[in-house]
Amino acid sequence: MDTQKRVTILGVPFLHATKEETVDVLTRRIEENKQTQVVTANPEIVMLGRQSASYMELLKRSQVVTPDGIGVVLASRWIGQPLPERVAGYELLHALMVQANTYRWKYVLVGASPESCAGAAEKLKEQYPHACCSGHFDGYFSEEEEKQILEHIRRERPHLLFVALGAPRQEEWIARHLPELPVNLAMGVGGSLDVISGKVKRAPIFWQKLNLEWMYRLLSQPKRWRRQLLLPKFALSVIWNQVILRRK
Question: Roughly how many angstroms between the first and final C-alpha of the chain, as a whole number?
């Protein structure tokens, strides 16, 4: 693991770095042929780790965990170890694709619906013509089809593997298979392929600058309300954890 500073929030070790610095760290690891699992962790993922010991262990083992959520950045300030900025998974995916375009890296997409996966693959080919798309597979695969996907990845040996199966499934899928795959970097990307394909709209810049992207998603996808209940639980857990530490 690199020597970059980490900030631990509720047991999860976040990389203390800007988006640009994060890309530099990841690019260096790829060029040095080091295998990396990247987790872009928002408060929901942190709380999933609190609920599952095995998932928390996965988060701790991951080489790079980025703060994908203003709640995580605010929490780092509350504990007196401020992270520089939010490093969103969608933006990190595109930043890595810029590097892929520069270095002519190969990449594979796994997950999302057939429409979103194929659409995202086409859009990425248009935006980053010098990067090599070595295959795309939607997330509705059988056990036998999964074996074929893994065999394809072994054969193609991509630098980047983007997995859109939703948390925690995508991180668990990566952790289970990455050690046996000739892949430099694997990252769970949640709904990013839906956005890239155009199937789902990302929050307008105005909402992003106000750090209200979570609210925009909730308003546009009301079925997410149960997941949003984890946000106040996350905030209270951080505050209570600090109270306990100070008493000690």
Answer: 31
